[in-house]
Design brief:
The complex is a heterodimer. Chain A is α/β, with parallel strands linked by helices. Chain A contains nine helices and ten strands. Chain A has helices spanning 40-47, 70-75, 93-101, 108-122, 137-150, 167-182, 194-200, 218-223, 225-232; strands at residues 2-11, 14-24, 29-33, 55-60, 63-64, 78-80, 155-159, 186-190, 203-208, 211-216. Chain B has one domain (2-240). The chains are: A alpha/beta, B mainly alpha.
Chain lengths: 242, 319
């Protein structure tokens, strides 16, 4: 349902993403991993329209998204979360999600009903009246997902939904991601918590220096020598000094 | 409860000129209400949408000049001119918004300053239309008879009722905005533009709409300014101090609240006049000090603080 073709992004002389191509099938959970600064978030920004690519195409169900503004891409069914959470800080949890639900439910009453349903799903039902700013980081991460879901996406881009969470919270989040997938939402997921991504993803794509290093099932990927090199550095060759 | 308060406030508004007859105080009330309209204007864009504009005199001045020119050149009565002035200001706001809202934060604020300066220079130099630096003057207002008696334009009472209607209209518009989807979207834009985009809000469009609504109110306020003071020139109506005053009123009164601009206008206009009469020199120093204290200790504004206090007390009682 999503296809990246030769996607490239340069910032001045720096190539953050280089000729990146991959496809994501409908209903999949795809993990996107790579070392710090490898261009994962840039890929999300390119797909969601927050940055214009220098070259290449992003096709959603065959239609090019390049050149559309972020709001237009959301309206086509691509929702995203932010790595550093960006709630509407002064607004209540309920209002945060209701605003997103307005996209499909113009009547406030209906939008609030939808927001309640989603907030229950992500486990924030008891906190709907709090200002988003008063939530803990875990809950702000949940709110970020709830808000993205309220737009009714076909494709959900999760940018490190587990960053900063403890082991129990990670398990809960993994459960939630499986749930969302079961509702028919395709998920691309950037993460540093490798255990979670290996257990939950159907497929894993590894990028380094903005280029694809590996693409396969979690098992294939962890055994790929290029991936090990990307994360740990190359194995020192014996007698390399000679 | 709320309805009763509103009814009492409206009754007080209608009765005020019978109770207060000293022309100076009637003038003061007119100024308070005019600044309520102008403060409500800035509140839409600076409060709800969170986009700080330092150039709102551009819209005030556009409204003032439209009202004046339509009356002097085409004989269109100022009460129509005031509304048309608002519309012209709103139309001018559209391209300004489309250009300036590409910028964020301080860059947007600076661009509004620049736009206001450009418009001032246009008004100063387009002499065939605006009479340039000499300004425009209304000598007589068209006669109006209401219920058999001719309105006396030399008294202040008719002006009081005109601006009272406009001020109530501005506050009702704010209240409707606060309840609308557009209003909710503006608060989202205020809190985080990226997140607003990410949930499908066309943030440029909603900010431009907010600016147009804001400009309409400022233009209406400017149209009234022209009709009431009967003389305008570019340096008077396109001035930076006017723009800044439009910022202070809703900030001191309470941003994003409906009544904030009114409360801010009551305090700042009456304080300004009091300082002016008691300290002939240096009254602006006291005015500035008051402003600093208000913003430092009540960042949510006078009305915002009152609402918080009421909400807290109510919350404690129910806990």
């Amino acid at each position: 349902m999503l296809e990246l073709k030769g996607l490239t992004k340069s910032f001045g002389g720096l190539r953050a993403v280089t000729d990146l191509s991959f496809t994501v099938e409908k209903g999949a959970i795809v993990g996107l991993i790579g070392p710090n600064g490898s261009g994962k978030t840039t890929v999300f920004n390119l797909v969601a329209g927050f940055l214009p690519p220098s070259a290449g195409q992003v096709l959603l169900e065959g239609k090019n998204l390049v050149g559309l503004k972020p709001y237009a891409i959301t309206r086509k069914g691509v929702a995203r979360t932010f790595q550093t959470v960006k709630p509407f800080r002064q607004l209540s949890v309920m209002e945060n999600v209701t605003l997103a639900a307005f996209l499909r439910f113009p009547m406030r009453r209906h939008a609030e009903a939808e927001a309640s349903r989603i907030l229950e799903k992500v486990g924030l039902k008891g906190k709907i009246k709090l200002p988003a700013n008063d939530l803990t980081l875990v809950d702000q991460k949940r709110l970020e997902i709830a808000r993205a879901l309220a737009t009714g996406p076909k494709l959900l881009l999760l940018d490190e939904p587990m960053g900063g969470l403890n082991a129990t919270e990670v398990d809960l989040a993994a459960h939630l991601i499986n749930d969302i997938c079961a509702d028919g939402v395709t998920i691309i997921w950037v993460e540093h918590v490798l255990r979670a991504i290996m257990n939950t993803s159907h497929r894993v794509i590894v990028i380094n220096y903005g280029a694809k290093v590996a693409d396969g099932t979690p098992r294939e990927v962890v055994e790929n020598p290029d991936v090990i090199a990307a994360y740990l550095g190359k194995r020192a060759k014996p007698h390399a000094a000679d | 409860m709320k309805l009763i308060l509103v009814a009492v406030a409206l009754a007080a508004l209608v009765a005020a000129p019978w109770i207060v007859t000293d022309p100076f105080y009637v003038h003061l009330m007119i100024m308070v209400l005019m600044w309520t309209v102008l403060g409500a204007s800035w509140n839409v864009v600076g409060g709800f949408a969170g986009q700080v504009s330092f150039g709102h005199s551009a819209f005030l001045g556009t409204g003032a000049y439209t009202t004046m020119i339509l009356y002097l050149n085409m004989g269109i009565a100022p009460w129509y001119g005031i509304v048309l002035g608002g519309l012209v200001a709103a139309v001018i706001a559209l391209p300004i918004g489309l250009i300036c809202f590409r910028l964020r934060g301080p860059y947007f604020a600076l661009s509004t300053l620049a736009v206001a300066e450009i418009i001032r220079l246009v008004a100063l130099n387009w002499e065939s239309l605006t009479n340039g630096p000499v300004g425009l003057l209304i000598t007589t207002l068209p006669p109006v008879t209401l219920a058999g008696t001719a309105l006396d334009w030399e008294s202040k009472t008719p002006f009081y009722y005109i601006i009272a209607v406009l001020a109530v209209g501005a506050l009702v518009a704010t209240s409707l905005l606060a309840r609308s989807r557009l209003g909710a979207y503006l608060l989202a834009v205020r809190d985080d533009i990226d997140s607003a985009e990410a949930i499908g809000i066309n943030t440029v469009q909603v900010r431009v709409l907010a600016l147009a609504l804001s400009a309409f109110l400022a233009g209406v306020g400017g149209g009234f300014y022209a009709m009431y003071l009967r003389y305008i020139d570019p340096d008077a109506v396109f001035s930076i101090p006017l723009s800044v005053e439009m910022v202070f009123i809703p900030v001191v009164g309470g941003l994003t609240t409906v009544m904030g601009p009114f409360i801010g206008a009551v305090f700042l206009v009456s304080l300004g006049e009091t300082f002016r009469t008691h300290f002939l020199t240096g009254h602006l120093i006291f005015y500035g000090l008051f402003m600093m204290v208000a913003i430092r200790y009540m960042p949510e504004g006078i009305w915002g603080r009152l609402r918080l206090m009421v909400a807290n007390r109510w919350g404690v009682r129910n806990a």
